[in-house]
Amino acid sequence: MRDRVLIVIGLLLFVSVVTYPMWHAAYAKTTAAGPQVKLPEQQKACVAPLAFMRASHMKLLADWREGAVRDGRLNYAGYDGKTYRVNLSSTCLGQCHTNKQEFCDRCHKYAAVSGPYCWDCHVEPASVARRMPTP
Amino acid sequence: MKITRKEFLHVAGLAAAGAGAARAVQASSCADPAAPQASPTAKRWGMVIDFQKCRAGSDCDDCLHACSAAHNIPDIADRQREVKWVWKERYEKVFPFQQSDYTRRAYEGHPLPVLCNQCASPACVRVCPTAATWKREDGIVMMDFHRCIGCRYCMAACPYGSRSFNWSDPRPHIRNLTAEFPTRTKGVVEKCNFCEERLANGRVPACVEACRQKAIVFGDLNDEKSAVRRLLRARHSIQRQPELGTGPSVFYLV
Predict the structure, then answer these.
(1) What is the pLDDT, as a whole number, of residue B215?
(2) Does residue B49 sit in the same domain as residue B138?
(3) Domain extent for B25
(4) For residue A102, what is the DSSP state?
(5) Which residues of chain B have a CB within 8 Å of the CB of A127?
(6) Residue B36, domain member (yes or no)
(7) Is the ipTM of this complex over 0.85?
């Protein structure tokens, strides 16, 4: 019976360690909700279905890059039958996802994606407008 | 028919000698790298700059500004770090081995616009270890910025100094940023691309469009009816250091 104190302390330690993820989640206000990306208002469909774009947009963009720069394939036949000009700045961001921060960045931040370095070179059209307000 | 071993060796030896001779003849015929390509439909973009019309000597910078604005070229004053696609060069630097004492006296110090010559046999392409620069079928020596590792072999190879290296992030030095063309990053080599992004949309290069003197003419060197070919037939033209065998696609009318 002299071990009672030790046993209780041990139990408490065990329970606190086992339930630590729950406490931490509650403290950090983590939820199961996904990233609140802002979808374009005017356009209803992307160049490819949602599931494909969600999982493989990086692959699609890499294919666009190779095709446009190296093989001169400047048009992309979308899944909806429309033809799109292959251009990250003026097609993706210019026509639909005009707010990079609320679309690209929000999801990348949620998924802890480091980079991508597209924007080291490619220019977000809205950032040009922000940099130089039209006189 | 039965063939003996001796006869077979005779025939095989003759065939091998014939094949070797054909190759040697081909090699010694010294094909001009700038000659029209085999495929009759293939384009070869070229440019003609009229020395007489160009007002580069009287502080005209129209082509330079148009190029900078179209391609997000940083404006860096330090000459060791500057980035240039089309720029002004003194006459004696442009044509160092094509002058007499008299032309030197007449034109020394006279500025001319120079740019990448889009060579038919480009030295930069041969040395690039990653195939980041290559020659397209239409003759444009293209640059894939994604693939450039910044080794600067191409800069060492280019006899015209047409390539520039980004020693630092160019974005702070860009005056008028455009979203139409990407910027580059630190550690990437860049050069004139003959405005391939404009050609793809059916437009002529920015410098050609901007020149008020119409001193720069652009067109297909493989098309006999093109404006560039007409000029090259009618006037005497020179290329920059043709003796190097690079086959420049940029011609100067003198």
Answers:
(1) 95
(2) yes
(3) 1-31
(4) I
(5) 177, 179
(6) no
(7) no
